[in-house]
């Protein structure tokens, strides 16, 4: 069994009274892909930003541990986190223009990223940047290094961002919905590249998304978030075939391809609660057809083998 690279223990990240992440725990092994899924506002991105140390005020990690390679990095200084980011851990953002400077050439940005962590010549750093562009499938990498971000298509810009994340062959990468704004063809190409790169470099990856189809193709395990908590987790094939939590089942049923032609699209009724006013019991209870008085009490995390769920009325039936 591969060694654990990252272990998150009871992580709590609050923005004042808003509990954006409320007691999240999971681990990621070397070479493993974890899919972190849920609706917008469920806490997925804040979890990623918390791990990599990019939560800005008024956001604060108020509790828990983030153990990376055996060390709790919640206790690390800002300088120590800057040394980790980019070299041993990296993040790929949803919008590549959050990473790329529009007024600097690609070679300038990639060379600076290399030299920020290693004492190498500009020539060697440029060669590494060229190789990284080639690795993610960008043709004519020498020529493209001299281009500006606006001279790339959206898909190519995202490939550049992935190349930057891979410059130091990090142990761990967080990808925050990096293919959401891309068309299906480009999305498929980038997913194929990520699968290949994870396999080649034995890199651990958290893929944050609301797209279950992407998770089914890419991830080894899945963790479903709702209102700042993980409500279900386990091997991706098991969870998608036989969800235990009604929220997970609702997400799966909401996928348009599961509907028969001519039927109305299925959806989860109601709205997610505000993380500033979470109920005492199950946060999903107001939207759940299986809820009763028991759900108004605090719901523990139930474990059965590799599966975990947070529901007192789990779904027993096999879903296909």
Automatic annotation (TrEMBL):
A Gene Ontology cellular-component term: plasma membrane
Key word Phosphoprotein present: no
UniProt keyword Oxidoreductase present: no
Keywords of the record: ATP-binding, Cell membrane, Membrane, Nucleotide-binding, Transport
One term of GO molecular function: ATP hydrolysis activity
GO terms of biological process kind: peptide transport; transmembrane transport
Main location: membrane
Span of domain ABC transporter: 6-252
Membrane topology term: Peripheral membrane protein
Compartment annotation: Cell inner membrane
Tree of life domain: Bacteria
Family from the record: Belongs to the ABC transporter superfamily.
NCBIfam families, A to Z: oligo_HPY
Name used for this protein in its record: Methionine ABC transporter ATP-binding protein
Source organism: Mesorhizobium wenxiniae
């Amino acid at each position: 069994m591969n060694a654990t690279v990252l272990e998150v223990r009871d992580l709590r990240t609050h923005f004042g009274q808003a509990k954006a992440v409320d007691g999240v725990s999971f681990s990621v092994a070397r070479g493993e892909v974890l899919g972190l899924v849920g609706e917008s506002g469920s806490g997925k991105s804040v979890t990623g930003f918390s791990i990599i140390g990019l939560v800005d005020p008024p956001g604060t990690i108020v509790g828990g541990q983030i153990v990376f390679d055996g060390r709790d990095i919640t206790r690390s200084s800002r300088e120590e986190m800057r040394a980790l980011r980019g070299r041993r851990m990296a993040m790929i953002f949803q919008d590549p223009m959050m990473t790329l400077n529009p007024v600097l050439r690609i070679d300038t940005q990639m060379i600076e990223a290399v030299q920020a962590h290693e004492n190498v010549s500009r020539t060697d750093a440029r060669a590494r940047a060229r190789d990284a562009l080639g690795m993610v499938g960008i043709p004519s990498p020498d020529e493209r290094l001299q281009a500006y971000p606006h001279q790339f298509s959206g898909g190519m810009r995202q490939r550049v961002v992935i190349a930057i994340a891979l410059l130091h062959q990090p142990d761990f990468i967080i990808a925050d919905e990096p293919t959401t704004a891309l068309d299906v063809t480009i999305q498929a190409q980038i997913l194929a590249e990520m699968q290949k790169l994870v396999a080649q470099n034995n890199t651990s990856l958290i893929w944050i998304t609301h797209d279950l189809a992407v998770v089914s193709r890419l991830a080894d395990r899945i963790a479903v978030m709702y209102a700042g908590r993980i409500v279900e987790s386990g091997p991706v094939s098991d969870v998608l075939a036989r969800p235990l939590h009604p929220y997970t089942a609702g997400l799966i049923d909401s996928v348009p391809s599961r509907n028969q032609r001519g039927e109305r699209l299925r959806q989860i009724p109601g709205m997610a609660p505000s993380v500033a006013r979470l109920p005492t019991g199950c946060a999903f209870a107001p939207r759940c057809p299986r809820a009763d008085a028991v759900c108004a009490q605090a719901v523990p995390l139930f474990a059965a083998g590799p599966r975990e769920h947070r529901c007192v009325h789990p779904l027993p039936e096999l879903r296909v």
